[in-house]
Design a protein that fits this description.
alpha/beta, 7-stranded mixed β-sheet, RUS_fam, UVB_sens_RUS_dom, Protein root UVB sensitive 5, UVB_sens_C
Length: 481
């Protein structure tokens, strides 16, 4: 058992979680003489994706020093494999899935390299036929030439191009979001698409600004599609329990096209009404009514989805139930309790993943403090501490070691909920944290067993470990706790 901390490590309510009375030696030289003291030794290092390594060093007198190093070599295996590539790593991360090539099949890159020029030629054809379509409906026909139609086609295609940029941004920058919470992003796609429709409706009021308004509308709708398509593919994969993803997708097309034909027919009937044709206000109010109905129906349709996968929201519900009642809800009840639209930052207790050790230490630095944390979590693949300011609830801070997995994230979440339930009732922080570790070791096995009996798939725990910083343990002064 860990001994009671010294008085300088006592928790002060209303302030920082703890206060050290030793002086900080941040980024100071290792010794005044220029030589490294005999007892100076590294404690741990944090690796970042840009090659920066932050080392935490004990100088032998309980003072902590930080040293930043810049390494030219990449810090993870994926970058090592692409180190000799002529394409910058940032571009590779933008266009290829995380973990490539190990995360995809062997034929993935060959297919995509051929698919790209295939799509290029398809859009060239789209540009060429657009002017013909516009001319056929009267654009440019009064001039006796095709110049006006060509100009209109360029403006129309430019609008489409601006919109396509939105899909490019979403797919490249936010591709890792959709596996975790497809329900939320599918719903937000409709919110963003609704905003795009507002821009397009306003073109009637400001016809002179058609191109910028239509472009903004198309951009919003393209962003919405960038959220919608990947999210729905995850949902389709959820439906295909017998591996029949192709058939599920094909039958979804039948439902969607049927709805499209019916919706177009009803839309034409509505537009044929004199009030809608002659009154812009009537048109807007009709659109608003139908759009609100659409959003409500979308929410209802997403709410009926029952995933067996464990993401962060469902993981919170599960560990909260187990910590409080020693039971785990089934996947049906858990999905019904899940709030689709809630953002992680508004969930309680508040947990921040991927936090640098420097933030955990607060304003003062002590190698003894680092050693205590490393010893306390020597059997875990993460380190959890907390900060508290004023009367607010504490924010739990978690940093992960280099061998951390999704199960490590789930364990840290369980501990955070235990700490939140069993609030600190004394000034000593470390005995409280140690008690939570003991509770974790005793209760987490039962938690996993109940997950299995409740129908959850423990092979589908989608709790992603932050890519940086990666905590690398280098030395512990006293290995025995």
């Amino acid at each position: 058992m860990l001994s009671t901390p010294a008085a300088g490590w006592r928790f002060r309510r209303g302030g920082l979680p703890w206060r050290l009375h030793t002086c900080s030696c941040l980024a100071s030289p290792l010794s005044s003489s220029g030589g490294e003291p005999e007892k100076a030794r590294p404690l741990l290092a944090e690796r970042y994706r840009d090659g920066v390594v932050k080392r935490y060093i004990s100088d032998g007198s309980s003072k902590l020093q930080l040293r930043l190093e810049k390494h030219e070599s990449p810090v993870n295996g994926v970058e090592d494999e692409n180190a000799d590539s002529l394409i910058p790593q940032a571009i590779l991360d933008f266009v290829l899935p995380a973990g490539f090539p190990g995360s995809v099949s062997a034929d993935y890159l060959d297919y995509m390299l051929l698919q790209f020029p295939t799509n290029v030629t398809g859009w060239i054809c789209h540009v060429l036929v657009t002017s013909s379509l516009l001319k056929a409906v009267g654009v440019g026909s009064f001039t006796g030439t095709s110049a006006a139609a060509s100009a209109a086609a360029i403006r129309w295609v430019s609008k489409d191009g601006i919109g396509a940029f939105g899909r490019l941004l979403i797919g490249g920058r936010f591709g890792a979001l959709f596996d975790d919470d497809p329900k939320k992003w599918r719903m937000y796609a409709d919110f963003i698409g609704s905003a795009g429709s507002i821009f397009e409706l306003s073109t009637t009021l400001y016809p002179g600004y058609f191109l910028p308004l239509a472009s903004l509308g198309n951009l919003a709708k393209a962003i919405a599609r960038g959220f919608k398509d990947p999210s729905f593919r995850v949902i389709q994969n959820h439906f295909a329990e017998s591996g029949n993803l192709g058939e599920v997708a094909a039958k979804e097309e039948v439902w969607e096209v049927g709805a499209q034909l019916l919706g177009l027919s009803i839309g034409v009937l509505i537009m044929d009404k004199t009030g809608v044709k002659s009154s812009y206000l009537t048109l807007v109010l009709t659109w608003l009514s139908v759009r609100l109905l659409h959003l409500w129906l979308r929410y209802q349709s997403i709410s009926v989805l029952k995933f067996r996968t464990i993401n962060l929201k469902r993981g919170r519900i599960l560990v909260k139930s187990h910590v409080a009642q020693h039971t785990v809800p089934g996947y049906v009840a858990c999905n019904e309790e899940e709030n689709i639209l809630t953002w992680e930052r508004y969930l309680r207790p508040q947990v921040s993943f991927g936090v640098p050790m420097e933030r955990m230490l607060g304003g003062d630095k002590s190698s003894d403090m680092v050693n205590r944390l490393l010893k306390l979590y020597k059997n875990e693949k993460y380190i959890l501490f907390f900060e508290q300011f004023g009367s607010r609830e504490p924010t739990f801070l978690v940093t992960f070691k280099e061998s951390a997995t999704s199960m490590s994230v789930l364990r840290s979440l369980w501990q955070a909920h235990w700490l939140h339930k069993n609030q600190l009732r004394q000034d000593e922080v470390f005995p409280w944290l140690e008690e939570s570790i003991v509770a974790l070791e005793n209760g987490f096995t039962d938690f996993l067993e109940q997950l299995g009996s409740a129908g959850w798939d423990q092979d589908l725990i989608i709790l992603k470990v932050p890519k940086e910083p990666v905590l690398v343990l280098e030395h512990l002064e006293d290995q025995e706790v």
